[in-house]
Design a protein that fits this description.
The complex is a heterotrimer of chains A (290), B (390) and C (336).
Chain A lengths: L1 H35 L6 H17 L5 H22 L9 H23 L15 E4 L2 E4 H23 L1 H11 L1 H6 L4 H22 L1 H4 L5 H4 L1 H11 L4 H21 L6 H13 L9
Antiparallel strand pairs in A: 1-2
Helix pairs in contact in A: 1-5, 1-6, 1-8, 1-11, 1-12, 2-3, 2-4, 2-8, 3-8, 5-6, 6-8, 11-12
Chain B lengths: L1 H9 L16 E7 L7 H17 L2 E2 L2 E9 L5 H13 L5 E4 L3 H14 L3 E3 L14 E3 L5 H14 L4 E7 L2 H16 L3 E8 L7 H10 L3 E5 L4 H12 L8 E4 L19 E4 L8 H14 L7 H19 L6 H8 L3 E4 L2 E5 L5 E13 L2 E13 L7
Parallel strand pairs in B: 1-3, 1-4, 4-5, 5-6, 7-8, 7-9, 9-10, 10-11
Antiparallel strand pairs in B: 2-3, 11-14, 12-13, 13-14, 14-15
Helix pairs in contact in B: 2-9, 2-10, 3-4, 5-6, 10-11
Chain C lengths: L2 H18 L4 H15 L4 H23 L8 H16 L5 H23 L4 H21 L1 H4 L24 H22 L2 H11 L11 H27 L9 H14 L5 H20 L4 H15 L3 H20 L1
Classes of the chains: A mainly alpha (290), B alpha/beta (390), C mainly alpha (336).
Chain lengths: 290, 390, 336
């Protein structure tokens, strides 16, 4: 009995930490899809870039881990704006399929570029000692890294919700997602709002990639390895809803962790089946509008 | 025609590549490795091994200039592997092939090298029983079962740890690793009391380690690719205090780029079983390290793919020189199969099936004068792959 | 029947005939495929794999280019075909033509089962459902180690001689001719489908999902039918590749292959039949040559090719070619 409770607590802790990480990484994709109807499969490229920025600063420059995080965020945001301006903007009106192919092309290019710059090996990465400790409180043990993920995820999530619900800019974003044409008619510069939102969303992906470096690993094929996870989050959540993305991330994080803990032999089977069932039951996602 | 074809296609793209010079009958070696995608590190390491070997031995064997024809198998893709093997045989007419980055790839290439009669060195693939699929194959890598089975047998037989627990990576090789460990442990009179499959991407090892702690086996087998995963598991094993509960840990190498002892104090007490002690001071190993450091810089840590390529080239050199520069496929194989060579890892030999026979080194991480060292506990000499029932 | 309806029928029949007439470039294309055999005798294994991929891309074109169904998991059927042929050969029946047909039939059955689900979703959900089915099947094949060999692949496959006479040779001559013959026959079938009234209804369905029912077309029925046909051809392509490689591995069900085939089709051009052939040839030949020149970074150029095709062409290489042809025609007319 005791060990059952212990297992459940363990799964909850790890699952929520992983879910938070997924949410931070994929919320930008959800907004992009909602606002511009743009399926950016290359979203993982931003997360990868964030990871590499942090790894490089730490490994080559000897910077402290926590200091590299805002830099990862900022740098990725800047890069994403350039990409949005010069490439993505041209295909918002294009067919879904063209968007898919274009972003797949960008994934391929980024994989080769990352292999060129950082080498094809998985990045060797040593977290500072205070993050690789396993602590035990009574019968419950956890890693300080997991605790850090949980803490960061919670703070960022709260910040996102506050920003969206309580600020003027957040209201503009919501208006643009709800109905682009009406928002335009109300005098909102949707393109500008979107550029800023896109930058923040991509920056968050970069931050997530940097934070999650120890949990997710980092090598040039990162954008493909985690593509399925991002897609599941936005599709189950429904494009454009932050609440949906959060719920889907937590669901995915928990079901993935629980699956690994209780029935490791099924592998990724469980999450794929969950995704299929949700898609068939509600093609627009749990929180999506038709 | 080949040139025409190439020019027509490539003219549109700017790419840099060395154009092979037309020498008098160069010794052509085809290299099929994963040069792109997630596992491109294998191809990269193979190139390092080749560069180091050339640095140390020069670029001719028995008067023939060595020419490498590199092919990308793009990862786990047997159809591509089979096709490039065909191309190496038919178009490039290579004398020898180094390949087999993945077990399915090696298996798909086997019939081609049998038909084309080209000696084929398996450089990476680890599934048991691949070389016997072709009379022209020989393995310089390590079959999964060898170190794992010996460790199991040693743990139960020599150390008297009768209850074992397998923590293996959730991948097909992990299955094979768990099976070999079980067989070894049972051969030593022990029993496996639990098994856990750990997913390749895993944020936290606590749940798995906690479960092992509850079960209280005498020995845990860790079977994972060297790198962050294996290191993370050992950290959790240390921090949660399994060693204090009398739970021992046997594993392969923890890191591909760093000697185990330098990883940190958390490795104290673990046992490793490997086919190569990367800092041993045999002349062969020192020669290998010297060449490696000359080409890659002094701080460079060796990886096993580079060493396997190094061995393959040494064996090639011996076999080709024995034939005065010719490469007769049958003769070459008879010069390799059933013979012994020296390698940076120690003596290696090949049985009549082309399977490698090599030492397994068991080391124990202990503190000597406050410094973590890997103490050699036992050398299991010339271990053959065990006959495991499928 | 009145004279008017008779005349209208005759006009419609004439219209179909005109559409289905062979164009001047079509024989050139197939003669080129035969010429490959003589011109590039050391590139036959590549040629064989190009043909298999082209057939696979053609099957995707049937649902995507003609039916408007975007699939991110079409390799589901390719893999089923490959495993069917492989398993038959492994357990003692290696006759190539029956194995091939068996691959097509099982893939068609799988396609029929999936079609119930596919026709009910659209847009991003459709992408995910097709991807999801693919992923689930991949996991099943991965775990069913005793049947499929898991990640080690299906071992011990032996296919018999084609027609009991021609053995698969190392230069790949027999495999090339056999594959070319099969692909040509299946191309004729696909061509027939596309230029039939059914094919026209499909095009209408792609152009305007809402209006077609008003014309009396049974959308779901048409969608399901083309999906089954497409699955069958994908399965045949998979079986064909399994026969020429004599090995089946997990990657024949891998998502990468789905993305690759989609890429080939888009690079070539959708909805124009030859797009799949042009795309597969360009993609695989360029990849092969780049991989020889620059094994580590060829992905970059493939990616760039995709981006360029999406940003600067209307419908892949075939689209660009026909645009160029039209432009020259206009110019010619303006000058004369």
């Amino acid at each position: 009995m005791f060990s059952i409770i212990q297992g459940i607590v363990q799964v909850l802790f790890d699952g929520v930490a992983f879910g938070m990480l997924l949410f931070v990484m994929s919320v930008g994709l959800s907004i992009t899809l909602g606002m511009m109807r743009f399926a950016n499969l290359a979203h993982g490229v931003f997360a990868m870039l964030g990871g590499y920025v942090t790894a490089t600063l730490m490994y080559r420059g000897g910077w402290p881990f926590l200091v590299t995080l805002p830099i990862a965020f900022g740098l990725v945001a800047v890069v994403s704006v350039a990409l949005e301006r010069f490439v993505y903007r041209r295909v918002y009106a294009a067919k879904e399929l063209d968007q898919v192919l274009l972003t797949v092309g960008i994934i391929y290019m980024s994989i080769a570029a990352a292999a060129y710059v950082w080498g094809p090996e998985p990045m060797t990465f040593t977290l500072p000692d205070y993050l690789t400790v396993y602590r035990r409180i009574g019968w419950f043990s956890f890693s300080t890294y997991g605790a850090l993920l949980l803490a960061f995820g919670t703070v960022i999530t709260l910040a996102i919700f506050y920003g969206l619900e309580r600020t003027r800019f957040g209201a503009m974003i919501r208006a643009a997602v709800d109905d682009r044409r009406v928002a335009l008619g109300m005098g909102i510069n949707v393109n500008r709002v979107f550029t800023i939102t896109f930058a923040i969303g991509s920056g968050l992906a970069g931050l997530g990639g940097a934070l999650g470096i120890n949990a997710l690993g980092l090598d040039p094929s990162f954008p493909i390895e985690y593509l399925v996870f991002f897609l599941i989050v936005v599709s189950i959540g429904g494009g454009g809803t932050v609440k949906g993305a959060l719920a889907a991330s937590l669901l995915l994080g928990l079901s993935d962790t629980a699956g690994k803990y209780y029935v490791p032999q099924t592998g990724a089977f469980i999450i794929y089946v969950v995704m299929l069932l949700v898609m068939l039951w509600r093609p627009n996602g749990l929180f999506g509008r038709s | 025609m080949r040139k025409l074809f190439g020019i027509a296609v490539v003219a549109a793209f700017l790419a840099t590549a060395g154009i092979a010079q037309a020498d008098e009958a160069p010794l052509k070696i085809g290299v099929i490795m994963t040069y792109s995608g997630p596992f491109a590190t294998y191809g990269h390491q193979a190139d390092i091994g080749i560069a180091s070997w050339l640095k140390a031995h020069g670029d001719t064997i028995a008067g023939r200039k060595i020419e490498f024809v590199r092919k990308d198998d793009t990862g786990l893709a047997p159809d591509v592997s089979k096709r490039v093997t065909q191309e190496l045989a038919v178009r490039d007419k290579v004398d020898i092939i180094f390949g087999g980055c993945w077990s399915p790839n090696a298996l798909a290439s086997a019939p081609v090298v049998t038909a084309a009669r080209i000696p084929f060195f398996i450089i990476v693939a680890a599934t048991d029983g691949i070389p016997q699929k072709s009379p022209y194959m020989v393995r310089v890598s390590q079959p999964v079962s060898v170190p794992v089975y010996s460790m199991g047998k040693w743990a139960a037989g020599t150390k008297g740890w009768k209850t074992g627990y397998s923590a293996v990576v959730d991948y097909v090789l992990g299955t094979a690793g768990a099976k070999a460990f079980r067989a070894g442990l049972e051969a030593g009179g022990g029993k496996v009391v639990g098994e856990v499959r750990i997913p390749v991407s895993n944020p936290d090892f606590t749940p798995f380690v906690e479960r092992i702690k509850e079960t209280r086996p005498q020995v845990v087998q860790l079977f994972m690719p060297a790198g962050a995963l294996a290191v993370g598991f050992v950290k959790a094993y240390h921090d949660i205090g399994l060693a204090k509960d009398g739970i021992n840990l046997v594993t392969g190498p923890l890191s591909e780029t760093q000697p185990t002892a330098t990883l940190g104090d958390f490795v104290e007490g673990i046992y490793t079983g490997t086919n190569w002690i990367d800092d041993n001071d045999s002349p062969e190993n020192q020669a290998f390290l010297k060449a490696l450091h000359e080409t890659q810089g002094p701080g460079f840590n060796p990886g096993f793919v580079a060493m396997n390529i190094w061995d393959a080239l040494n064996i090639t050199k011996a076999a080709v020189e024995a034939q005065n520069g010719k490469v007769d496929p049958g003769k070459t194989m008879s010069l390799i199969r059933g013979h012994q060579f020296t390698s940076p890892r120690g003596p290696i030999a090949f049985d009549q099936n082309g399977e490698i026979v090599q030492n397994v080194y068991l080391q124990h991480a202990v503190k000597v004068d406050g410094k973590m060292t890997m103490k050699l506990v036992e050398t299991l000499p010339m271990v053959k792959p065990p006959a495991l029932t499928q | 029947m009145t004279a008017e309806t008779q005349a209208a029928n005759a006009a419609a029949v004439a219209d179909f005939r005109a559409r289905a007439r062979w164009q001047w470039y079509e024989p050139i294309f197939w003669l080129g495929a035969i010429a490959w055999y003589f011109l590039f005798p050391t590139y036959l294994p590549l040629g064989t794999q190009v043909l298999c991929s082209a057939l696979f891309a053609l099957s995707l074109d049937l649902i995507l280019g003609y039916g408007g169904i975007v699939s991110l998991g079409h390799t589901t059927f390719f893999g089923i075909g490959a495993y069917t042929a492989g398993l038959l050969a492994k357990y003692g029946w290696g006759e190539p033509i029956t194995c091939l047909l068996a691959g097509g039939v099982t893939a068609a059955i799988a396609g029929w089962i999936c079609s119930f689900v596919i026709v009910r979703v659209q847009g991003v959900a459709l992408l995910l459902v097709t991807l999801g089915i693919n992923l689930v099947l991949y996991e099943i094949a991965n775990k069913a180690y005793t049947i499929t060999g898991g990640a080690d692949g299906l071992q011990g496959i032996v296919f018999w001689k084609v027609f009991g006479v021609f053995d698969y040779d190392i230069e790949g001559r027999v495999a090339y001719i056999y594959t070319l013959a099969v692909v040509f026959l299946l191309f004729l079938v696909a061509r027939r489908i596309v230029y039939s009234p059914f094919g026209l209804a499909l095009k209408g369905m792609r152009e305007n999902w809402k209006r077609m029912p008003a014309l009396g077309a049974a959308l779901r029925h048409h969608g399901a039918l083309i999906f089954v046909l497409s699955a069958a051809i994908a399965g045949l392509a998979g079986a064909l590749l399994a026969e020429s490689v004599q090995f089946v591995a997990l990657d024949s069900l891998g998502v990468q292959r789905s993305v690759d085939v989609l890429t080939m089709l888009i690079v070539g051009g959708t909805g124009v039949l030859y797009g799949s052939f042009v795309g597969a040839t360009v993609y695989m030949v360029v990849r092969d040559q780049l991989a020889d020149l620059n094994p580590a970074y060829w992905y970059f150029w493939i990616g760039l090719m995709l981006v360029v095709v999406v940003l600067f062409t209307r419908n892949g290489v075939v689209g660009a070619l026909s645009d160029a042809a039209a432009w020259f025609q206009r110019r010619g007319r303006a000058q004369s």
